[in-house]
Amino acid sequence: MSCYIRSPTLALYMGLTILGIILAFGLYATNLRCSISNIQPTSHGKTWWTQREDLSRKRSWNVESPERLLYKQPSATRGGSDVMAVTPWLAPIIWEETFNPELVDAIYKPMNLTIATTVFAVGKYIRFLGEFLETAEKHFMVDFKVHYHIFTDQPQEVPAVNLAAGRKIFVHQVPKLDRWQDISASRMQMIQTIIEEQVHREADYIYCQDVDAKFHFRWGAETLDRLVGQIHPWYYDLSRDQFTYERRPESTAYIPSGVGDFYYIGAMFGGTVEDVYRLVKKCHENIEADKAKGIEAAWQEESHLNWYLLHNKPSKVLSPEYMWDDQRGKTEVMRVIRLSQILKNYGEVRENV
Ligand code: GAL
Ligand code: MN
């Protein structure tokens, strides 16, 4: 042991090294303190956005399963179905038989979540609201706390519907716009506004749906995730060059040919409040930028949604079971239809063609 300090040069080197280590640690610790205090604003000065971001960082993603729940053993080699159940970026695609509903409920129900949902019942579309709400009470997030946010120009026409415990309706009055294209495109901005004004305080997740639709079957907690897109029922079996993306390079929603994952439907998107907020804010900004140049994207907010989800991949993708279209007969791949757009006479329900 003493042999190490016998040489004075060695002792000097060792002393310098130790001093160096102490100095380096001191500098590191000072920096560390600074960067921590920099990213921790006082709770007094916090905006709702930083509070939500803290919440999403703290949120526990543990998948806790009850001890004695019995369910079918999953196979490591055979999928429950012959459909594609995962995207190339490893997000699950939700089809019947890819999940166990009892197990999903047993995991998510104890989390005490509140799910906000938005529908737009403007002009003649108010006629669809009653059936949407009545069927939602039977199939949509049953036994969860649900806040229905209804945007309408006719608050007095919102039907009285019996809601299960923990479920509420909020009515937001909006102006009646003349063109259905404008009603459709303005949804991004209105969803942004209610998240800022109310939903950020009250809900964990938010799902945005079309009102001209009806639930038929379970639409449950298997859909919950950070950012969720829904495959359009008319395009799940077509090539990407047949997708009705916005094809003009002047538009912010432009998607060139040879590019694209899925064609997502504008009638359903969702996720955590933070992620949906980022989505609607960006789409709203892009819609405004296009408007300033006199451009309206091919399918209004649906085109902007497709651009957003191409560049910000969804963490979960819903199969067409979650928003079918009754104009298309049930195809072979569809085991169940959970929600579908009902048949309607466009000439009768739209103010313009
Ligand atoms: C239609 C649908 C429209 C739009 C369009 C896209 O089937 O009704 O809302 O999504 O497809 O091509
Ligand atoms: Mn619709």
TrEMBL record:
Pfam families: Glyco_transf_6
GO molecular function annotations of the record: hexosyltransferase activity; metal ion binding
Residues at the active site: 302 (nucleophile)
Cell location: Membrane
Residues involved in an alpha-L-fucosyl-(1->2)-beta-D-galactosyl derivative binding: 232, 244, 302, 325
Ranges annotated as spanning the membrane: 12-30
Cellular component terms (Gene Ontology): Golgi apparatus; membrane; vesicle
Binding residues annotated for Mn(2+), in chain numbering: 210, 212
Keyword Transcription regulation: no
Keywords: Glycosyltransferase, Manganese, Membrane, Metal-binding, Signal-anchor, Transferase, Transmembrane, Transmembrane helix
Cofactor requirement: Mn(2+)
GO process terms (BP): carbohydrate metabolic process
Top-level taxon in the UniProt lineage: Eukaryota
Cofactor, free-text remark: Binds 1 Mn(2+) ion per subunit.
Positions that bind UDP-N-acetyl-alpha-D-galactosamine: 120-122, 125, 210-212
InterPro entries recorded: Glyco_trans_6 (IPR005076), Nucleotide-diphossugar_trans (IPR029044)
Stored SUPFAM superfamilies: Nucleotide-diphospho-sugar transferases (SSF53448)
Keyword tRNA processing annotated: no
Main subcellular localisation: membrane
Family as reported in the entry's similarity comment: Belongs to the glycosyltransferase 6 family.
PANTHER family: GLOBOSIDE ALPHA-1,3-N-ACETYLGALACTOSAMINYLTRANSFERASE 1, GLYCOSYLTRANSFERASE-RELATED
Protein name: Globoside alpha-1,3-N-acetylgalactosaminyltransferase 1 (FORS blood group)
Species name: Paramormyrops kingsleyae
